């Protein structure tokens, strides 16, 4: 493919994601916030954005920037078959996770992570953050594999890695050694902070983690308040710790599910505190809806979930992630960001035709992941696009649509991706 030639595509583009030059008149916008545009690219960058003159020839595609997966677990993906959690309970998931962890090897993690990356790529993902179980015998192999893959996949997917350990681990000597290693390869510090809580001990553990993060300059991404009890107790403790120590790195709170159970006044005050301390949130509606609030013999109508809209109203940056895929924590999913948007529509009542319904999948997720490109389409932005065979949001979300993926101005060859032919991803055009 000649990179010096300019290529064009006519498509529907979300008005909120496109920046038009001042000399271009405002395009027509549908009730779903889409406008018909002619997008050009050259040498890997967007080179022109124009109106479509012929309104009879409306496009049949919906164009998006390549999307993001801000929260995944590549080391355990696709382990459901051997470790099914048929009752769908949180504690069973944890038990099975630990059993499966004992069997993890270099090659099993490589196989899973590769499958996940191929799926994510063909579904239109450009950056993915994965938590990595990081204590115990197989954790070394997991890091080795994932760091290798991060290098191999650099041109296709920006892979971010978070060391996932119990919170108290960061207070140990081994925790410090892990921190130094993670920092040396540009990773993030993670942890699980959920009931049962442990009062003053928790505070000193949080302070220790914050100090380590400051010392090594590593961002933090915690699994916090993934629970139906003690609403937001973990977040409250985090705020308490942040009042004692100034933090100089980004902090993200994944899940934050039980916060949704707070009475509205307390919820609003906590959201304001999170904004003041610059804490970001990743809501994970799928695993929360599946695992939390279960009753043995009754369908629960109370499903803890991060209060996305209240957080946004307080100015907190919120992204939505997929979390687990076909493992003991969640039986389905396949690293498809469009399917995630479709699920989030009824579960989280997020609609992509609203600005704050689309941001958690696009600009907010990019900001929270610290990416260079926020995903808005303007002259000079990367020609990294996802083109869906759909002429409306409803058409795109009703069933997973066919799609084409443009990476740095080149179309990916779907057949090569299907055969996991890493050396021949490009079409010949
Ligand atoms: Zn997770």
Tell me what the structure shows.
It is a single chain. Strands 5-6-7-8-9-10-11-12 form an eight-stranded parallel beta sheet. A four-stranded antiparallel beta sheet has the order 4-13-14-15, with helices on one face. The protein folds into two domains: 110 residues, Roll (Urease, subunit C, domain 1), CATH 2.30.40.10; 302 residues, Metal-dependent hydrolases (TIM Barrel), CATH 3.20.20.140. The protein is globular, with a radius of gyration of 22 Å. The mean pLDDT is 94. Helix content is 34%, strand content 20%. Strand 2 and strand 3 form a beta hairpin. It is of the alpha/beta class. It contains 14 helices and 15 strands. The chain binds zinc ion. The site of zinc ion (ZN) has 6 residues, from loops. The site of zinc ion has 6 residues, from loops.
